[in-house]
Amino acid sequence: MDHDAGAGLLNPYAQTKVGSDTIFAWWARYQEAIASGADAVNGTIGALLEDDGTLAINTVVDEAVRNAPAVEIAAYAPLTGLPAFLDLAKTLALGQRRQELEAMGINITATATAGGSGALYLAANNFSNRGDSVLLRDRYWGPYKGFLSGCDLKIKTYPLLPKGASPYPYVDIDGLKHELSGLCETQDKVMMWINDPAHNPTGLSLTPNGRMAVLEAVMESASVNEHVGHTLLLDAAYHLYAEEPHGWAETLHEAMKNGWPWPENLLITFALSLSKSHTIYGLRTGALVSIHPDPAVTERLGTVMGVTGRQTWSAAPRVSQYAVSEIHASDEGGAAWSEERDRLQDLLVERRTALIAACDELKVPLNPTHDGFFAWLEHEDPNKIAEACATHHVYLVPLTGGVRIGLCAIPLAQIPKVAEALAEALR
Ligand SMILES: Cc1ncc(COP(=O)(O)O)c(C=O)c1O
Fold this sequence. Notes:
The chain is of the alpha/beta class. It has 16 helices and 12 strands.
């Protein structure tokens, strides 16, 4: 492709945009293999597939969308979202602890967004100063870079895992603290994004003490640097498929129960996506759910996010907001959705358990992996590993620092083949 084409029409930032086709390129290779009659394995895509390769669909959601009245399909939603959906979004973010947190003085504001991506965009657009850096954990989801650079933001990272033995095996607290204190010296606003639980691309989930250590580190930094605004964004794209879906709310609840003083300059915000949890990837539905003890702050944030949405996508789609609100409005609806969600989660649990066991047996040093759609093999030459796997017709995705194994797409029966291909590739 000629990247200089259109240079006279595109502004300099637009000219830096090049297609990031790695995932699609590897998916295309899988499809070519299938077309040529090979018994190929698809570990490439990021959508949950049934064991027969078709898209897994939560039928309760599908039915609710189809039964929506015409006006709920055709009309605009209110600019910040349907009230019932905004209420639901708060509960989806905080789970059963929501009421207790509110009783402890926490205020919550929610804005409907165009998927989880829209929520990330709202945060990028509003919580950091242009030109500053946002703190990410290594092996972050690739599109973060685009959301941030589009808002003229740079990236600082800390390592995925601690180097030696640590009481927090799944988060590098020292690395986080080090980078955070560096940013506090040069910026008057610091935002951190962490995709937890069920991290894409590794499947990592923090433990309760790991979450508490992160919260304490951020709280301490906010207390010491009282003139620096701190925003901790929890990317909850896969949380409803995790063993502890509302672990962060548990951690917050515990901290507050223990008399934790919430610094004025600390905001915690959840980027919620219903794409996976409700299998409505294409209906572009999510929310940014922010919590803070000062109601004036949450009210102001609600306005700012609504205006930003208005200036970006106008209103988020109405029919999906309506349909999921209807489902969760009744105990029966909620239970029916959960039952389907549990069935889909079981697919992931079975595949992950089988992959861990097979990799153990074949001495494949798979990274720790707990929840969600993916598993990960850290490697300095991911392309070499992915190419070697492809010679066995196992198609995975080489990304920065390792190979992503799309458990969400791999049928249970093909998991042993994936472990064998990885073992061969490492030889
Ligand atoms: C880590 C992560 N965050 C956020 C999203 C946003 O999802 P969507 O915009 O489709 O709701 C995704 C989707 O793949 C993701 O993997």
